[in-house]
Amino acid sequence: MRTPLLTSTVARGSDGRYYSTSRPGSSQSTSSSTSTASTEKENVRHGVDPEEAKQAKKTATGQAWLRLFRLARPEYRLLGGAVGLLLVSSSVTMVVPFSMGKIVDIVTSAQGTIPFGLTPGQMFAGLGAMFVAGAVANAGRVMLIRTAGQRMIARLRRQIFGRIMSQDQGFFDRNRTGDLVSRLSTDTMVVSKSITNNVSDGLRASISAAAGLGMMIYVSPKLTGIMLGIVPPIALWAVFYGRYIKRLSRRTQEAVGELTKVSEERISNVRTVQAFSREAHEEARFDVEAQRIFGLAKREALASGLFFGGNGLAGNLALLAFLGLGGRMVMRGEISLGDMTSVMMYSAYVGSALSGLTSFFSEVMKGVGAGSRLFYLLDRAPEVDRNEDGIVLSRSQLQGAIRFDGVGFRYPTRPDVAVFQGLTMEIAPGSRVAIAGPSGKGKSTVAALLLRFYDVHEGRILVDGHDLRAVNLASWRSCVAMVPQDPILFAGTIRENLLYGNPQATEAEIIAALQRADAWHFVERFPAQMDTYVGERGVSLSGGQRQRIAIARALLARPRVLILDEATSALDGTRERRVLDALDALEDVTVITIAHRASTLRRSERIFVIGDDGSVVEDGSYAQLLANEDGYFHHLMAAQAAEHRE
Ligand SMILES: Nc1ncnc2c1ncn2[C@@H]1O[C@H](COP(=O)(O)OP(=O)(O)OP(=O)(O)O)[C@@H](O)[C@H]1O
């Protein structure tokens, strides 16, 4: 946690001198923050990245369809094979009613003749063999389709994850983690299913509907005419009512999704909930949501009951009508019993194929929706260009001279608030400098800009004379290490976390880094030592322990520029001194410390003080700055000392 020592502000009086004031809170300009707040509220309310919404509007559905099918291109072979097998299995399926009709005729009439002069045994064996072939083709089709689908899911997930990892921080400021994860897990699945399983089912339904209808007409045009009066209305009813149920079920799913997101957040922050005794409140909130889901699910249950009951009844009534009308035709000798059986079976096939076809369209539309969410990620070029072809900086050659040259910067989510304006700083190679200033004035932003999490809007940042934007980003980042204010460790062991900074580090190097960061003595005392599991985000370590492990991790990366953002704030004076002494002993490393505490600031060769206008208002050594009694820094320190005394 950040030490709230400099919450007081420093104001410039009408005489141009600086005064410390004990007014709490930030002195950010109010007019600009009002308009920013409205932009932010908009974003939060819709829960969508406005940039994505804009792009989605531009994309026509037709284009999205095409693109969706293009995604399946690498799977064309498997899908082609599956379509071939589908034709085989569908042909077999479509022959079934016809054969059944023939068999009925053969076994019920004395004159029935077996086609091709076959014996009954041969006929049954032939049909059996054909069914086996159909079954094998069907099994093959399902395997090919599923394999193609899974390959597509794996490929998409890999691509999407890669794209997410390479995005700039502005993107992460706008998008919620839960939403990105659901794109990775659910949307990839929906997209893949919609063009593999679903296309195969749609194709099968089309073949069934067309061939079934053709065969019905071939067997008995009159009975087909009668059936066409009965089956389509029932199928249509089933389709529309089915859609209504689907809508209900989607709403339930969405409500469950929302509940999952909220409960996940509350459970992962259960300490805060318990600390504020808000358990009952959270339970009540959860209960409201759970009741809402139950209400929706109850409606769905009622509707489903009606649907299935109604479907069964409609099916049976249709059958009755069919038997009545068809039976009369058989009695009049207009058609054979076998033909009536065939038409009855075909009409059942056609009915189910029709409803299959409508669900095909709605599934493809679902795929288009999920696809557009993926396309946005696949297409989004990070605002911070990684500049792979840029100047490559090597750790062995980098001097570590840094210059902020008239830097202007606004966060992408708050374009109305300028954090920096004309910020200029010159940091000599291998020096120890500090950034000071009141809370919320952009000290951590300096670190974010140095790591190029964001690009500056005006001016430039130079490293050894190169504009950071012209440098290969990965090469620069491999020269820099940062220990953030509240370092996060990965759920894993201490060793795994340390190796994250340098996977090649030897055991001796790891221990040396831990010693430098004053962490070895406590790690050594853990029963599992470096194999101690640190818990999710490192929660099973104290704040100070986490900070020191993070410092060791940064040291292991052997940086030429080290940024410490309040990296020792959780340590007591003695421990902090030990860590800072060890860091001071680092050779050929430029160390930039962001700090509030006088004890930390005092050690720096030069301090840059960021003022209210987002620029450096003063710089110099601690002693020089403090000596200027009218200066900003002097008043900042005075305010801090006054707060200490209180
Ligand atoms: N990701 C972000 N998106 C939008 N605004 C941000 C973001 N991060 C910080 N800010 C805003 O930028 C300003 C500077 O923040 P920064 O964290 O750099 O301040 P700081 O000087 O390090 O403060 P502190 O001493 O409290 O840590 C603040 O007004 C803050 O609200």
TrEMBL record:
- Any one GO molecular-function label of the UniProt entry: ATP hydrolysis activity
Comp. bias regions, Basic and acidic residues: 39-55
Comp. bias intervals (Low complexity): 20-38
Bilayer topology term: Multi-pass membrane protein
Q: Where is the ABC transmembrane type-1 domain?
A: 81-366
Question: What region holds the ABC transporter domain?
Answer: 402-638
Q: Does the keyword Zinc-finger apply?
A: no
Task: State where it is primarily located.
Answer: membrane
Q: Which InterPro entries match?
A: AAA+_ATPase, ABC1_TM_dom, ABC1_TM_sf, ABC_transporter-like_ATP-bd, ABC_transporter-like_CS, P-loop_NTPase, Type_1_exporter
Localization in the cell: Membrane
Output the SMART domains linked to this UniProt entry.
Answer: AAA
Q: What stretches pass through the bilayer?
A: 76-98, 123-144, 202-219, 225-244, 301-323
Q: Where is the composition biased (Polar residues)?
A: 1-11
Disordered as annotated region, ranges: 1-56
Q: Keyword set for this entry? A: ATP-binding, Membrane, Mitochondrion, Mitochondrion inner membrane, Nucleotide-binding, Transit peptide, Transmembrane, Transmembrane helix
Query: What is one Gene Ontology biological process annotated in the Swiss-Prot or TrEMBL record?
Result: oligopeptide export from mitochondrion
Q: Tell me, what's a Pfam family for it?
A: ABC_tran
**According to its record, what are the GO cellular component terms?**
mitochondrial inner membrane
The family note in this entry says: Belongs to the ABC transporter superfamily. ABCB family. Mitochondrial peptide exporter (TC 3.A.1.212) subfamily.
**UniProt protein name:** ATP-binding cassette permease mdl1
What species was this sequence derived from?
A: Coemansia guatemalensis
Name of the gene this protein is made from: MDL1
